[in-house]
Request: fold
Amino acid sequence: MSNGYLFVMVGADDVPLYEYGVLTQRSEESSYSYHFKIHAALDAVDECMWRKTNMFLPNVDVCSNALVSAFVTAGSVRLMLLHEFRNDDGIKHFFTDVYELFIKIQLNPFHEPNSPIKSQHFDARVKGLARKYLKP
Reply:
């Protein structure tokens, strides 16, 4: 994985809410390995969120040259990023801005809580934030 990343939002009941990734290796096998690594890091994020008072949890887990950083909301929604580069400030800003977008989605009366986010506007904004902040 060279400068690729996978961003996933996981709900309170481990329900996947949103996913976006830039995978540098285009094989199906590498795509599964990204998902496997981020799924395996869920337990590490759960442990870390009870030990720390910050919402931003940098470098929670390490999986074969890949780091997992997380941001846990007040409602226990986990924003997780599997990445190979170190850019803690950029990742923190990315998580903060995505959290702000997530709050706006949750305040929409037509959005069902803890259901996948299918808004094209949300998707476009997250992709723009990723281009802005997630540079090695």
Summary: The longest helix spans residues 88-106. The mean pLDDT is 86. DSSP finds four helices and five strands in the chain. The helical segments are 28-40, 42-51, 88-106, 120-133.
